[in-house]
Amino acid sequence: MIMIRVMLPSHLQTLARIDGEVTLQVENPVSQRTVLDALETRYPMLKGTIRDQVTQKRRPFIRFFASEQDLSHEDPSTPLPEAVLSRTEPFLIVGAMAGG
Predict the structure, then answer these.
(1) What CA dihedral angle connects 48, 54, 58 and 62, to 10 degrees?
(2) Domains by residue range for the chain, with CATH
């Protein structure tokens, strides 16, 4: 198990009743999938808000970032960057915007 930092958008922080960053204990290998599994286990009210409960696919208008890289279209089982594993940087879950 590895401890990592996760930052949620403000509307999900409100739903989960948290303020700011979350520290999670995550199974190895640490990936988007294992982070979201740990997040939904600790905060069950977030189930279905970040990814579909049946397909496990990322919801539209939700993006994932780490080490200044957009990981939203990466395979969910791809290991996260070392900066996230070492807790130097958080894994960011961001609410995307659309429009023009």
Answers:
(1) -20
(2) 2-95 (3.10.20.30)
Does the bond joining 29 to the residue before it have cis omega, within 30 degrees of 0?
A: yes
CA distance 34 to 30: 6
pTM of the model: 0.89
| Percentage above 90 pLDDT, the chain | 77
What one-character-per-residue DSSP string does the chain give?
-EEEEEE--HHHHHHHT--S-EEEEEPSSPBHHHHHHHHHHH-GGGTTTSB-TTT-PBPTTEEEEETTEE-TTS-TTSBPPHHHHTTSSPEEEEE-----
